[in-house]
Amino acid sequence: MDSFTVTVNGQPREVQGARPHTTLLNWLRDGGLTGCKEGCAEGECGACAVLVSRPDGRGGTRLESVNACLVMLPAMNGQEVITAEGLGTPNHLHPVQHEMAVRGGSQCGYCTPGFVVSMAAEYYRPERREGEHHAPNGFDIHSLSGNLCRCTGYRPIQDAAHALGTPPESDTIAMLRTRPAPAPQALHLSGPDGDFHRPADLPEALDLLAEHPDATLLAGGTDWGVEVNIRHARAGVTIAVDALDELRELEWHDDHVRIGAGLNLSEIERRLDGRIPLMAEWFPQFASRLIRNSATLGGNLGTASPIGDSPPTLLALDASLILASRGGERDVPLSEFFKGYRQTELRDGELIRAVRIPLPLAPVTGFYKYAKRRFDDISSVAVGIAMELDGNMVGRIRIGLGGVAATPIRALKAEAALIGQPWTERTVREAARLMGQEGTPLSDHRASAEYRAAMLEQALLKFFYEKTEVVGG
Ligand SMILES: Cc1cc2nc3c(=O)[nH]c(=O)nc-3n(C[C@H](O)[C@H](O)[C@H](O)COP(=O)(O)OP(=O)(O)OC[C@H]3O[C@@H](n4cnc5c(N)ncnc54)[C@H](O)[C@@H]3O)c2cc1C
Ligand code: FES
Ligand code: FES
């Protein structure tokens, strides 16, 4: 098959001769929809934001904002997109466009369609309730954290967001939410620039992976899209795994919770609804809403980046990974998954199917991320801690670290200094000193080795003072 359809602003558009590395952004712009812009082509600015229709889990549709610059066009086979042009027209502005215009939320206008789209996603978010997120209209201003503006300043943009009401009954876009979202459709494209497969189910995906062990797995595309755009990476064979039902489970069992590797972080955050407090603390610190609407756990773990944020969190939670191949499945502790710089335990033909977190959860947890910016930035150092106290003694503690070695690691020296010891300032200070010696931190453009070591110490002390009652001694 070399053609497929994408519905854009309500109209089906046929894609002929699609290529595996064409981005949704370039295709939309080539088709005349130049509202969405390319600012950075790497997920940082939000100028390319569009709405996509996704299942809401209750038979309806959620309208979610994503970075079109990171979406590979064939991954949109049969899907539905709304751009800023589809929200309103110059004579009939959408409420979001109206508020941005009358409150001075736009100057040069380059960023404006992207802001409008992210704002529209929040306008239509079904859970938005008055008074939430410290805004009278319940608008979560962090939904705009992936959108950058160079000229207006954020105050008028915030004013526009906070002036929005609820969509009226007659709003045709709001009505889309009540009908089912388009289902994923299998696709096999073959061409001179490579092959693109969206398999129908996991067995087909594993067969393809067995045949093409060097294939690139594509989930949310927030890493792969940057490789394609900025480093001009190309894959001979791409296999899209994000829509596989078998990678989209989230199940609670008596002794563990299982989270599908193909779920994006926003979905996991919603579906967990705070029941894993360490993850609830971590999610808002991961990139932006635009990125979290696509990025998956499988992608974060599969790239084996030493500065990925999920490993410190999941190491603290003592997680293991369920790896699947045509030959069957195996369970590998996360602490044994990373083998070297960007090397993993994954064998040819294997993918990450799910993350398994044992229950019961340790009751005292904390996530500490040190980055140049408070939000929407990659970690210099990240620390996840999960602890259970037995009276005033440390019963169990696990500490996961990112950014201080070639792989994510556990802080084994600090853990050993704490287990079975009283949870007092004295023992914590000594453990923090040892924690500062964990790993082999490097100096780079994000942080110096000394700073990284100092932040490790600080994280444990912060955990002590913030999360537990301070005990003398
Ligand atoms: C602007 C921006 C901000 C970011 N901020 C953060 C941040 O704060 N913290 C952070 O940790 N990361 C951050 N990232 C990196 C990225 O978003 C994450 O690593 C994300 O989790 C990748 O998931 P994905 O689904 O998009 O992966 P994709 O890009 O789809 O895939 C990346 C790679 O992962 C592998 N892979 C994917 N799925 C599987 C699977 N099921 N099994 C095995 N391998 C698989 C493949 O090798 C694939 O090529 C950021 C990225 C951008 C662009
Ligand atoms: S162009 Fe900057 S996020 Fe897509
Ligand atoms: S209005 Fe110019 S970049 Fe935002």
Would you give the CATH topology of the largest domain? Answer: Ubiquitin-like (UB roll)
Ligand species: flavin-adenine dinucleotide, FE2/S2 (inorganic) cluster
Helix content: 25-40%
Strand proportion, as a percent range, falls in 15-25%
| Sheet with most strands | 5 strands, mixed
> What is the overall number of helices?
15
Work out the number of β strands.
Answer: 20
What do we call the CATH homologous superfamily of the largest domain?
Beta-grasp domain
User: How are the strands ordered across the major sheet?
Assistant: 2-1-5-3-4
Which regions have little confidence, pLDDT < 50, spanning 5+ residues? none
Q: What's the mean pLDDT score?
A: 95
Ends distance: 71 Å
Q: Which architecture name of the largest domain does CATH use?
A: Roll
What's the topology here?
Elements: E1 3-8, E2 11-16, H1 24-30, E3 49-55, E4 61-67, E5 80-82, H2 95-102, H3 112-123, H4 154-162, H5 172-176, E6 187-191, E7 194-198, H6 202-211, E8 216-218, H7 224-230, E9 237-240, E10 250-252, E11 256-260, H8 265-272, H9 277-282, H10 289-292, H11 297-302, H12 310-316, E12 320-325, E13 328-333, E14 338-340, E15 343-344, E16 351-358, E17 364-370, E18 381-390, E19 393-402, E20 409-410, H13 412-418, H14 425-435, H15 449-467
Parallel strand pairs: 1-5, 7-9, 8-9
Antiparallel strand pairs: 1-2, 3-4, 3-5, 6-7, 10-11, 11-16, 12-13, 12-16, 14-15, 17-18, 18-19, 19-20
Helix pairs in contact: 2-4, 13-14, 14-15
This protein binds flavin-adenine dinucleotide and FE2/S2 (inorganic) cluster (FES) (2 copies).
Residues 38-41, 43-48, 67, 69 line the site of one FE2/S2 (inorganic) cluster.
